[in-house]
Q: What sequence folds into this?
């Protein structure tokens, strides 16, 4: 048995903390090999080492049995490793053919031979039965079609191994099916696929083998017959941890309803979303990448528009305008902290003031003393370090930046705070502080919606957990003790525990 | 219809409408002489606009073209007056000097990493200052001297009523369009403007592409300068002032997007003619200068607002169409859950 790819005892550390500990990984020719693990398990680090984006600290990569070095993307390409990126990397205004052949045009004296290139690309398209045409402009294609263009690009480079990272994250069911068909074709053609996904049923259906990583260690390699969804989830999380981090008892609130969302729909993004949030409640929103959680929250906040449905706040229909909603008592902590959460060059004081000029300014003039006072107050209240309200937020650590973002809202009389991945990229100490801030907010009557992909965090902080899946609400956990396994299974569309399916 | 063709149709339609408006409201618009004169007027703007289209398609900008023309023209006038160099040599020097301007812009942008806007705004000052360095002086006073060399003056002339500048413009436009659509460089220009990161990852040297388009623009400024002095028969210190805006307006009206990756030389040619028709038509009304400028300004602003609105509308439509196609499966997705 000769493997196409073998990675032996791969090691990698960042700032002294090991991310991959002597990981072995191999792929056979024509094999679909799934790579699974929780966020931070080391999947993407392993892939980045394979594609030459990160250097490895130890271990050896073999390609067709020969030891090879992969120092950059070109090396990987030359070996025959193609990557389909999560954020697609095509040129929108060029045609499919131009994109596929970009950088490797067939040309004479600088003039491209369009006919020859078109023939080559069309042949590839026909061979695999793809649903695109060579002279279509990429920006007019659907996400799924663009993905097939990426696959075409890899195939035109004679790739023997194609890496797909969460390829179905933004595809509809029908489109996903089409993709699975393509993967089937690739397999028949002897092309290997490394398939990274959180969706258990896909992995179950597609893969010949499956490797589970946990905390930088290869936990298991399973063959098709050995793949049992429940077992895989347990392997990903680890038994002890799962017990230790189970939720406190979830509960329904009997406080008055503050936010009532009914049948909210945005075509192609999410559909028929209905839920209620009570006063002083922390509700967690769980789901995989592409489930539509962030999109729903942005619509409720007024940042995006939706097609149908209603949002009521304390019994009244909510405006679709951010400015008005902030006045009503909304706060929003976005997922992309650096680009949307704060203004890096401005001081903590000025960042906090940005959401408070309704009280801090009079006829357009800023009351400097009040502004300063509020800044100092918030730095003290949230223990933002270093304790100087004049420091630009961009110079703070991740945790303190997030506290500064929270300060923008906590300085107001807040009724509903939406936080999206509030502790992503933040160290454990600061995480705890942020949980305490959210909890004390809720105790004082503010409702909190927390979108998170961190299962431990969801279980620790939430009073109820709503699980979204493929643009709809899949289930809600609102009583008893549940574990990470329960949430992860629900996210992937497998239900074991009570919890009412929405449809 | 593909978006590109739709946009072209709109450019042509707005040009036709503008021409019809002037045709019906003024005397002597639709005469052969006037049309040839319009085609002459659009020549210089058009020649430079070819290069600036390339720059704008790479998502860049060049604000220095007017000053570059001023500098090159003055340099040539000076050499003609002081050294009486032969016309052929002057033309060569003109093209070389223009190209050097482009090389400098490209160097500052790609090697020194100065954003295009600020880089070419500064070189605009630099080139304008060079005008005064080379200005012809008599007893210390800048003097406007007539150019007498017949070889240069002939460049302002015509063959059978068709001006040389018009012919040159149209030939260069065809070449420009071929470069954009049929060569590797053309594909790379679009790729650089539409998604530079991705173009880099595909192995395209996007800095080289960006430098090249500045050099082409400089080269074209050199050619334009020959026709400029040939036509006027002298070089003043304010020659080419504001020309860069005329050029950029033509390019944008022609459908090149500031965000990059969109537009072509066909559109730019239409845009250049549009600008010339506007200028020519307004003059026919015998209005005071202020009123002329106001009409010109308002029309340009309307065209540019329209372009922006149209682009947003098309983006939205494309997005909706893609979503619709993707959603044929959404019901099943819901049902499955």
A:
């Amino acid at each position: 048995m000769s493997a196409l790819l073998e990675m032996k005892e791969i090691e990698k550390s960042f700032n002294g903390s090991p991310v991959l500990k002597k990981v072995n990984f191999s792929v056979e020719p024509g094999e679909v090999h799934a790579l699974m693990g929780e966020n931070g398990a080391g999947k993407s680090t392993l892939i980045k080492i394979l594609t030459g984006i990160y250097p490895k600290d130890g271990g050896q990569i073999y390609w067709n049995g020969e030891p090879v070095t992969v120092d950059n993307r070109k090396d990987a390409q030359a070996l025959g490793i193609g990557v389909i990126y999560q954020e697609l990397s095509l040129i929108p205004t060029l045609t499919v053919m131009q994109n596929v052949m970009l950088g490797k045009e067939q040309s004479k004296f600088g003039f491209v031979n369009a006919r020859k290139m078109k023939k080559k690309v069309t042949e590839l398209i026909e061979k695999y039965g793809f649903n695109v045409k060579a002279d279509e402009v990429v920006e007019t294609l659907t996400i799924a079609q663009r993905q097939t263009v990426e696959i075409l690009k890899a195939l035109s480079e004679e790739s023997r191994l194609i890496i797909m990272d969460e390829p179905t994250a933004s595809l509809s069911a029908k489109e996903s099916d089409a993709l699975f068909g393509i993967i089937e074709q690739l397999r028949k053609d002897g092309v290997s696929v490394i398939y990274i996904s959180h969706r258990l049923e896909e992995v179950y259906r597609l893969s010949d083998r499956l490797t589970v990583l946990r905390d930088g260690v290869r936990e298991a390699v399973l063959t098709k017959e050995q793949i049992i969804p429940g077992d895989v989830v347990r392997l990903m999380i680890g038994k002890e941890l799962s017990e230790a981090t189970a939720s406190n008892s979830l509960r329904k609130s009997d406080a008055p309803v503050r936010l009532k969302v009914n049948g909210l729909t945005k075509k192609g993004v999410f559909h028929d979303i209905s839920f209620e949030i009570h006063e002083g409640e922390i509700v967690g929103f769980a789901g995989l990448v592409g489930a539509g959680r962030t999109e729903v929250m942005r619509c409720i906040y007024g940042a995006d528009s939706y097609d149908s449905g209603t949002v009521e706040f304390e019994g009244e229909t909510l405006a679709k305008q951010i400015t008005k909603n902030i006045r009503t008592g909304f706060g929003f902590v976005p997922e992309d902290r650096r680009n949307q959460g704060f203004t890096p060059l401005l001081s903590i004081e000025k960042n906090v003031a940005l959401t408070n000029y309704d009280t801090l300014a009079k006829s357009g003039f800023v009351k400097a003393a009040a502004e300063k006072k509020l800044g100092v107050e918030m730095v003290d209240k949230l223990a933002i370090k270093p304790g100087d309200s004049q420091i630009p937020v961009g110079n703070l650590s991740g945790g303190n930046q997030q506290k500064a973002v929270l300060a923008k809202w906590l300085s107001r009389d807040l009724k509903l705070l939406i936080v999206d991945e509030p502790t992503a990229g933040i160290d454990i100490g600061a995480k705890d502080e942020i949980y305490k801030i959210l909890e004390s907010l809720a105790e004082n009557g503010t409702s909190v919606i927390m979108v998170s992909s961190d299962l431990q965090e969801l279980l620790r902080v939430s009073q109820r957990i709503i699980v979204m899946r493929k643009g709809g609400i899949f289930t809600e956990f609102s009583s008893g003790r549940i574990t990470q396994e329960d949430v992860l299974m629900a996210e992937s569309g497998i239900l074991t525990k009570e919890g009412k399916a929405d449809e | 219809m593909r978006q590109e063709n739709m946009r072209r149709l709109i450019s042509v339609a707005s040009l036709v409408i503008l021409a019809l408006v002037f045709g019906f409201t003024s005397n002597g618009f639709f005469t052969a002489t006037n049309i040839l004169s319009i085609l002459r007027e659009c020549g210089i703007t058009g020649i430079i606009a070819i290069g600036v289209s390339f720059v704008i398609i790479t998502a860049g900008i060049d604000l220095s073209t007017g000053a570059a023309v001023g500098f090159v023209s003055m340099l040539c006038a000076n050499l003609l007056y002081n050294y009486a160099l032969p016309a052929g040599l002057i033309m060569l020097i003109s093209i070389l000097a223009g190209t050097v301007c482009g090389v400098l812009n490209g160097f500052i942008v790609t090697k020194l990493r100065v954003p295009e806007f600020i880089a070419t705004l500064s070189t605009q000052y630099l080139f304008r200052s060079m005008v005064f360095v080379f200005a012809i002086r008599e007893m210390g006073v800048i003097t406007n001297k007539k150019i007498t060399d017949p070889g240069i003056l002939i460049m302002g002339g015509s063959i059978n009523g068709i001006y040389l500048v018009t012919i040159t413009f149209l030939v260069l436009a065809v070449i420009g369009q071929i470069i954009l659509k049929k060569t590797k460089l053309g594909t790379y220009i679009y790729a650089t403007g539409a998604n530079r990161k991705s173009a880099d990852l595909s192995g395209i040297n996007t800095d080289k592409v960006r430098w090249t388009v500045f050099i082409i623009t400089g080269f074209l400024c050199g050619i334009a300068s020959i026709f400029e002095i040939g036509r006027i028969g002298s070089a003043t210190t304010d020659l080419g002032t504001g020309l860069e805006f005329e050029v950029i307006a033509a390019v944008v009206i022609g459908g090149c997007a500031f965000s990059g990756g969109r537009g072509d030389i066909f559109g730019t040619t239409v845009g250049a003619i549009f600008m010339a028709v506007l200028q020519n038509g307004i003059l026919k009304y015998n209005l005071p200068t202020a009123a002329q400028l106001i009409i010109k300004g308002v029309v340009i602003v309307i065209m540019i607002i329209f372009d922006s609105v149209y682009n947003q509308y098309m983006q939205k439509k494309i997005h909706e169409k893609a979503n619709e196609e993707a959603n044929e499966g959404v019901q099943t997705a819901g049902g499955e859950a």
Residues 289-327 of chain B form the longest helix (39 residues).
